[in-house]
Amino acid sequence: MPADGWWTRYGGQLDAASGVIAFPRGALPPCRIPECMPCRERREMTCDKRLDVPEGMRKAALDFPSELPFEGDDPLPEDVTCELDKHPFGDHVALLRDLGNEFIVWVTWKADGLDADADDIKVQQRAVCKSESPSPDGEDLRCWLPEAHRGGHAWERYL
Question: What is the pLDDT of residues 83-106, one digit of tens each?
Fold first, then answer.
């Protein structure tokens, strides 16, 4: 199986052993169905505030102990989008690094990422939300947002 394919332009990586293509959170390929109602609703319900993550914040995220290995000097995203539902106030939140032990390193910021002051940007380790979906097909989908997050659970976007 080739290492590159249609999935690479969307950030996907092929696991040659299993044949599974994995995408980073929030980087699914576009839907091929014109005017797909679930896809449109998902776009309309999520916050669209972005942040260029300062290098110092990415380095700070690497200081948290992790059970998961990583390769490279700085494997963290340089820019992120808030992963919460749309919200008129409060902090924006985006995943920087999964620690593999029910904790994730998050970057939070107050203003639109273009106007964010360095004092408003924080890197924090937080527990993962414990909510699981009542999936009709028996597959349990877990919320990957921080514990006690505002808005709906991540799995609600994909049922």
Answer: 888 888 888 999 888 887 788 899
Per DSSP, the residues of the chain read: --S-STTGGGT-EEETTTTEEE--TT-PPPPSSTT-HHHHHHHHHB---EEE--HHHHHHHTTS--SS---SS--S-SEEE--SBP-SSS-EEEEEEE-SSSEEEEEEESS-TTT--GGG-EEEEEEBP--B---TTS---B--SBTT-SSS-GGGG--
Q: How far is CA 157 from the centre of its chain?
A: 13
Q: How far apart are the C-alpha atoms of 84 and 101, rounded to whole Å?
A: 22
Kindly report the pTM of this predicted structure. Answer: 0.67
Largest Cα span, the chain: 47
The C-alpha atoms of residue 86 and residue 83 are separated, in whole angstroms, by 9
Beta-bridge partners for 150:
none
- The proportion of the chain whose per-residue pLDDT surpasses 90, expressed as a percent, equals 7
What is the average per-residue pLDDT within 7-27?
68
pLDDT digits 0-9 by tens, 118-150? 678 899 999 988 887 766 555 667 788 899 888
β-pair partners for 58? none
